[in-house]
Design goal:
Low-confidence stretches: 374-405, 469-478, 654-736, 875-959, 1217-1242
CATH superfamily of the domain at 984-1242: Protein tyrosine phosphatase superfamily
Structural class: alpha+beta
Radius of gyration: 39 Å
Distance between the termini: 103 Å
Protein name: Protein-tyrosine-phosphatase
Oligomer: single chain
CATH topology of the domain at 984-1242: Protein-Tyrosine Phosphatase, Chain A
Length: about 1250
């Protein structure tokens, strides 16, 4: 018999004890079963003795013990005991990923893990520690030790410092992630995690990957101090302790100087990082002569590679023994350091700029390629490669920040302003007072004498003979008249000469309207609503909010009339953080359906636009509790993004009953305002062709379509907004408790336009504008346009649209008058730079010459049939011929002339019918006069006087007729710019690198290889970059020798290119021209010091191309990279195009698919042939067309081909090329055929 049976379990063992009454035959049997995962016997004993030790048990596991007692007399006695072992020390958590992410608040480090595989009980907490140590150790580290950085964690996580167990994270999930930030620059952040149960913490688990923080500018930069004024043209500065390099190594120092009038306070200046840098002359002219604009400029006086002790400003010398920086401020700035003698009687201040270059090791190859190819980004959780050193994508924030990349540009830090210095002439005080009194006495004497003479003449009635009462006023004619459509091209070419001298003079003559009143913008409570202190909204035409949260009706926006008042634009600044609600309120109150944004979120390191819209994956935006904005769709194209918003206005109905009827009114809804009286005073007087026009708005319709009169916010003009014909534009929903009105808002975000500049090409912005001009919402509702300040790019866009309408209606354009009128309706800075002013002319000229060449997918076949049609010959009288013929002056980019096509009413091709359509649309007296014989003779005389060649070689009655496609091909070679130079390719050291002197890159688009140790000589390579739709390309010639083979691989390595497309025949290569090995495993070695090794790893032969995988490695690089070469074999040498388009299209699809799947953000695709022009140009052209067709379902063969032609010589042969010339350019191959127009037809 047994008594007091007890079990004492622990984590891995248990002790059994009991008391027995000894008998002669007492026998105790024990059997232990594990009850987890089924009943399983793990131990037994037939004759156990107390105490009994059970070992090898598992922690936190239930067990059952079966006990059988036999004493030899009675039947066996059985009983069962259940127990569970104690918890043991848990295993470490399973680490997932550590990555660096970019959020709106800055960079953060995210750590992810999963529960441990072996818990040994119930895990109750996790602990995470993120510690950052310095990456770059500054030299002065011993002077002040930098502690390890433990960044704070976002709730509910905490950064565990080992002191308190309260910093743990509750274990209630199967996946855990913690974000830490903000992070400090120049740190490596390593993560450690623990798990904990009742038995204690696990062993620490260390992440092998880390979050690497890039270099940044120092936290504190001391300004220099003025020491001694040497003379009246210079002063000395001394520098205090240098900035600490805890955030990264300092690459360069720049000293910026800001000249000011003596009466300007330094407190009125903006922050140093907002000062615009210009040349010394421009800064002086702006700050001294036009200081009323309050937009002060500065200039870079000196630059230093090492921190100086002192310097002298104005001595035109750099400090002794200090080398200047080898790069300019902002890298792409065109102004180098210049320190001329200073002007006297002025005040000078300035600040120190510190440049810290980014660590390129953190950005190659993934991030550098991601920066260049941001248009192709796809929604992925993270980006990884063989080296998982820098995973920085955050899936949840990816779409929101799809156009906001982690900057890899240098980082700049700015000190505060140093105390201003005034340079004054030393004049004896007595001499100054003497001169003052002498001048004052002389003036008083002259005034007394003049007054006496006038009084005498007045008393004798002689004054009326000198000043008759009847005055004749001679009106001054405008200095710049409107230009007829026929003369616009010639005028553009004339003004474009001598570095745009005439354009600059015309731009400077534009009125500034300094007398305009900006009372509302200058109010103290409204200053914070302006993004820039010098960009204000004039009082006469500003948009007034009906209600506002702060009681103010102000928003920095103005009404601007389009041509003849047919369109209404609202030009406004980009919202700042405290005006986002006012911005959406204005959209609702003004019934806006189209919003156009011509700015990027961030440009040159500065925020241009505060994000004011929600994305599809974000919560809806609520404004004033009654407006709700939600994003329903987002589509990203090459040049712009299109977003669709639902703008919902909600109101709660209340019912009011009177004697006659019961009426339901909506509380808090937009009130209906009526005008008290019409203001008849004319405020907006348009100059030029807009002069003396009084175009009025009319009343707005109600939501039901009935016109209602609303208070006009545009001076004295009432407003007209037609009710929408599309039921989707406005929907009224009446619910039981709330009335809801939904409006569809379309947001166009154009991203290819930098502040204070003009787009490189008119193609993108004109495609968007012509698309908008076909929509009802754009033509029938006010259009909201904004950039950053709402003046430069905004004014340019409005001016182009208005002038297109004027040209269609009147057959002439008045750029000067239109821009002047736009400025009068907002402020004097609309169209902000000469580049933007020239761009307006360029857009109009190209629109006249080429028209709308963008064809939809469904209409392309019909359009191609019309282009191939050759018009029949007609006999036309002389006068009719002049009226129906438009002379287009076109210049070949190489200096030659080409014949412009003749347009008439029978030609249906859009590029050939534009001027004819203008004539048919407005058969006015003015247009008939310009189309007369006298106008034609005047045009010829003007052409001869200005030295322009006559391009009217082709007569309309000529027996030779061109089809539309031939005429369009001729227009490819129309060049409005000056002759492009090819000087770089003609240098003595570079001539040997060109296969043919006529097929070389233009200087403007010439690629320079990155300098490398051991690579001496020229950095030139015969290759041209070109941006397609989403993909980037290099058009290159075949290497000519082993040296250019080495340059070819340097081009690939510098730009992380991973695909090569070879359009040459392999048999055309000489042995020393081949850049790839022919046998697998046999390396090719290039370079003077044999620093490059290329190996063929695999080769597959397809019906129309050969696919080779090549790997290369430079001696000074630790990485080996793989490149795929596609050698196209279905293109006969010298043929204008492949025999069939199928193989070429298959190759393009293969290349595109591989480019997208190689790794995210691969470099440009290298396409090469013998001369690097024709075959690559055709390949890139078709690839770009296919890419855009898949995204936009639109085709623009003409502008796509023309863009490539403007980047490289000889991409398409000239129309007038003779067979002999062509054979010479094709290296006299015996089977060469003429390419001529077949090239363009086969596109």
């Amino acid at each position: 018999m047994i008594q007091n049976f007890t079990i004492n379990p622990r984590a891995h063992d248990a002790t059994l004890t009991w008391d027995t009454q000894e008998g002669p035959m007492l026998k105790i049997g024990l059997k232990l079963y594990k009850r987890q995962g089924g009943k399983q016997e793990i131990w037994s004993s037939d004759n156990a003795k107390s105490p009994q030790q059970l070992t090898g048990l598992e922690p936190a596991t239930p067990y059952s013990l079966f006990i059988q007692v036999q004493d030899g007399h009675a039947a066996a006695f059985q009983l069962t005991e259940h127990f569970e072992t104690a918890e043991g020390k848990p295993g470490g958590p399973e680490k997932e990923e550590i990555r660096l992410i970019d959020t709106t608040t800055g960079l953060q480090c995210e750590v992810e893990w999963r529960p441990p595989l072996i818990t040994n009980g119930q895990v109750v907490k996790y602990f995470v520690r993120l510690a950052g140590k310095l990456r770059y150790q500054p030299q002065d580290l011993s002077e002040s030790v930098v502690p390890i950085d433990y960044p704070p964690a976002l709730e509910p996580c905490k950064n565990y410092d080992g002191s308190s167990d309260d910093d743990g994270i509750d274990a209630k999930k199967n996946f855990f992630a913690c974000k830490f930030g903000p992070l400090k620059p120049n740190r490596n952040y390593a993560a450690t995690i623990w798990s904990q149960n009742s038995a204690g913490k696990s062993d620490p688990v260390f992440f092998t990957d880390q979050c690497f923080m890039d270099f940044a500018a120092p936290d504190e930069i001391d300004p220099p101090e003025m020491s001694v004024t040497h003379n009246v043209t210079s002063f000395s500065l001394k520098f205090n302790s240098p900035p600490k390099e805890f955030n990264g190594p300092i690459a360069c120092y720049y000293l910026a100087v800001v000249p000011l009038p003596s009466n300007v306070s330094i407190q009125s200046l903006p922050k140093p990082d907002n000062i615009i840098m210009e040349s010394y002359e421009e800064a002086m002219r702006n700050n001294i002569q036009i200081a009323s604009s309050q937009a002060y400029y500065g200039y870079i006086a000196e630059s230093y590679l090492t921190y100086p002790l002192s310097t002298i400003i104005g001595d035109n010398k750099a400090p002794a023994k200090i080398e200047q920086c080898n790069v300019y401020y902002l890298s792409k700035s065109r102004f180098k350091a210049h320190d001329p003698p200073l002007q006297t009687d002025l005040k000078y201040t300035g600040f120190l700029i510190v440049r810290v270059d980014r660590d390129r090791e953190l950005h190659t190859p993934q991030q550098l390629a991601f920066q260049r190819m941001f248009q192709q980004r796809r929604s992925k959780r993270s980006i990884s490669s063989s080296s998982k050193k820098f995973n920085f994508m955050d899936n949840k924030k990816f779409q929101r920040h799809s156009r906001q990349l982690i900057s890899i540009d240098p980082h700049y830090g700015y000190s505060s302003y140093f105390k201003p210095v005034i340079l004054q002439q030393d004049h004896p005080g007595t001499n100054g007072f003497q001169i003052f009194f002498i001048v004052l006495i002389c003036l008083l004497a002259l005034l007394v004498a003049a007054g006496s003479i006038i009084y005498f003449l007045y008393r004798k009635d002689f004054l009326k003979h000198f000043c008759p009462l009847k005055k004749e006023h001679n009106l001054l004619k405008p200095a710049f008249q409107a230009i007829s459509a026929d003369d616009l091209t010639q005028e553009f070419i004339i003004r474009h000469r001598d570095s745009d001298y005439l354009f600059s003079a015309e731009f400077e003559a534009l009125p500034k309207y300094k007398e305009m009143k900006f009372t509302a913008s200058e109010k103290k409570e409204n200053i914070k609503k302006n993004r820039y202190g010098d960009i204000k909204a004039c009082d006469e035409t500003r948009v007034k909010l009906k209600t506002s949260s702060d009681g103010s009706d102000y928003i920095n926006a103005n009404y601007i009339k389009g041509y003849a008042g047919k369109k209404i634009f609202i030009a406004t600044q980009a919202p700042v953080s405290n005006t986002v609600e006012d911005f959406w309120q204005m959209i609702w109150e003004q019934d806006i359906r189209v919003v156009i944004m011509v700015a990027n979120m961030k440009e040159r390191g500065r925020i241009q636009v505060d994000k004011y819209w929600p994305d599809e994956n974000e919560p809806n935006l609520h404004v004033h509790k009654d407006l709700e904005i939600s994003c329903t769709n987002t589509v990203t194209f090459a040049d712009y993004a299109k977003r669709d918003f639902d703008l919902v206005f909600s109101s709660y109905p209340t019912t009011t009953t009177n004697n006659s009827s019961s009426t339901t009114t909506t509380a808090n809804s937009t009130p209906n305002h009526t005008t008290n009286s019409a203001r008849n005073s004319s405020i907006l007087q348009r100059t030029g062709s807009f002069r003396h026009q009084q175009q009025n708005y009319h009343d707005l319709p109600t939501t039901s379509g009935v016109a209602e009169e609303e208070e006009s916010e545009y001076a004295n003009i009432s407003m007209l907004r037609p009710s929408s014909k599309n039921s989707n534009n406005r929907t009224n929903l009446l619910e039981t408790e709330v009335n809801r009105e939904i409006r569809k808002i379309v947001h166009y975000h154009f991203t290819n336009w930098t502040d204070l500049r003009a787009p490189e090409s008119t193609c993108g912005i004109m495609r968007l504008m012509l698309k908008l001009r076909k929509s009802d919402e754009y033509n029938n509702y006010p259009v909201l346009i904004h950039c950053s300040a709402g003046v430069g790019r905004t004014g340019t866009f409005i001016a182009i649209d208005s002038l297109i309408d004027q040209c269609a209606a009147e057959g002439k354009v008045d750029v000067f008058g239109t821009v002047s009128a736009i400025r009068q309706q907002r402020n004097g800075t609309m169209v902000q730079s000469p580049e933007q002013y020239v761009f307006i002319y360029r857009a109009l000229v190209e629109n006249l010459l080429f028209g709308d060449t963008d064809i939809s997918e469904e209409n392309f076949c019909d359009h191609l049939i019309r282009l191939k049609h050759i018009p029949r010959e007609r006999r036309i009288s002389g006068c009719s011929q002049i009226r129906m013929t438009s002379t287009n002056v076109s210049f070949d980019c190489n200096g030659g002339s080409t014949t412009a096509g003749t347009s008439n009413g029978n030609n249906h091709s859009p590029p050939l019918t534009l001027i004819t359509n203008v004539t048919q649309a407005a058969p006015t007296t003015t247009l008939q006069t310009t189309s007369s014989v006298g106008a034609a003779l005047n045009a010829k005389l003007k052409q001869w006087r200005n030295g322009l060649p006559n391009h009217n070689h082709k007569d309309i009655t000529s027996s030779t007729k061109l089809s539309g496609i031939d005429a369009e091909y001729e227009k490819l070679f129309t060049c409005l710019d000056n002759i492009r130079t090819i000087n770089n390719s003609q240098k003595e050291e570079n001539i040997k690198k060109n296969r043919h002197p006529d097929f070389v890159p233009y200087d403007r688009y010439c690629i320079l290889l990155a300098p490398r140790i051991g690579c001496s000589g020229s950095q030139y390579i015969n290759a041209t970059p070109h941006h397609g739709y989403f993909q980037n390309y290099f058009l290159a010639q075949d290497p000519v020798d082993s040296s250019t083979c080495h340059d070819f691989w340097r081009l690939i390595d510098d730009n992380q290119s991973r695909i090569i497309v070879m359009l040459s025949r392999e048999e055309e290569f000489e042995p020393y021209e081949k850049y790839w090995p022919e046998q697998q495993g046999v390396p090719f070695i290039f370079g003077n010091d044999e620093d490059l090794t290329v190996i063929l790893t695999s080769e597959k032969v397809h019906p129309s191309y050969i696919e080779r995988k090549l790997s290369y490695k430079f001696k000074r690089s630790e990485e080996t990279y793989e490149v795929i070469q596609y050698a196209f074999t279905a293109w006969i040498s010298g043929a204008p195009c492949p025999a069939s388009s199928g193989p070429l299209r298959s190759l393009i699809k293969k290349v595109m698919d591989h480019q997208k799947n190689t790794y995210y953000g691969a470099g440009p695709i290298v396409v090469h042939s013998r001369d690097g022009s024709f075959e690559p140009g055709l390949f890139v052209c078709i690839s770009t067309l296919i890419e855009r067709l898949e995204v936009e379902h639109m085709i623009d063969v003409f502008r796509t081909a023309r863009a490539i032609l403007q980047h490289r010589v000889g991409v398409f042969p000239k129309p007038k090329m003779s067979r002999t010339d062509f054979q010479h350019l094709a290296f006299q191959k015996p089977k060469v055929k003429r390419r001529k127009f077949e090239i363009f037809k086969n596109l």
